[in-house]
Amino acid sequence: MTSVTATAATPAGTLGPALTGVVPPVCTPLTPDLEVDVASLLRLVDFQIAGGVDGLFILGSSSEVAFLPDAHRAVVVDTVLRHVGGQVPVLIGAIDMTTLRVLDHARRAARAGCAGIVVTAPFYTRTHPAEIERHLRGIAEQCEAPLYAYDLPVSVHSNLDHEMLLRLAADGVLAGLKDSTGDDAGLRDLIVARNDAGLTGFSVLTGSELTVDNALRMGADGVVPGLGNVDPHGYATLYAHARAGDWDRAASEQERLLRLMRIVRAAPAGRMGRGSSALGAFKTALHLRGVIDHPVTAPPQIPLDEAETAYVRQILVTAGLL
């Protein structure tokens, strides 16, 4: 297992060693009555750690953070941090619409002893780039935990400016970035600019789980893969091959994971949204693998039906995971 970096004792304003490796965004198991399924969450965390991951990211997109009330978020934070007990770093998403709402989540995460806080740009309202920078600086100033920016234009509807990110890194405001833009050219440009500026402590993690081998070869520090919930060992294997410079084996493992990722196509677009299909498929796969008790997703997402569940099962069988 690769060592990861910044601990809860690293204050904002200090750029320490870069976070590296496989850091899955952990799903949030739910009971049929839509409470957090604590027993399943504990098994899922153990499943990730046993799979060789280097850290955990809770309350991210694959955690259904946008669907969870504050009380559910608190249960997830307390449960995971208490159970992990420092075995691996735990990043916590403080994702909400505006600065004051984000600060409420971020302060609680910092008090709980997380290894880092993850935030997006503000959303719902139209936000100027200068306001995004003010948002990030304000959070870092008030929360004593390393701050990671999350570039998620599909949901936030704006990309994070690379010059701003590196300026904030140089000022000790940001410890790193999760890049979920899907823009490989932009990612490469950011990595080159970071290296040219000597900001090697600024961690660049890709959220594009189907091109991880390419991102690592370009110099990314790690990956935050939603599919890692289902097959953490696969991503740990891919990362190990990349670290060893065995790019042929890394590519082979990436292609295996690409085939496994076809589970997200379980439901037709005319029946539900892409997010419902993907998160439903992840949870269905975890349920079929015996990791979580129920494949329940938060409303208004539509659950997979029997035929769609059978589709997920067949892909798991083909992948040797059942």
From TrEMBL:
This entry's Gene Ontology molecular function terms read:
4-hydroxy-tetrahydrodipicolinate synthase activity
Please give the CDD domains that the UniProt record associates with this protein: DHDPS-like
Q: What is the lineage of its organism?
A: Bacteria, Bacillati, Actinomycetota, Actinomycetes, Micromonosporales
Which branch of life, at top level?
Bacteria
Quick check: keyword Ribosomal protein in the entry? no
Active-site residues from the entry: 150, 178
Q: Which residues bind pyruvate?
A: 224
Q: What is the name listed in the Swiss-Prot or TrEMBL entry for this protein?
A: Putative dihydrodipicolinate synthase
Family named by the database record: Belongs to the DapA family.
| Example GO BP | small molecule metabolic process
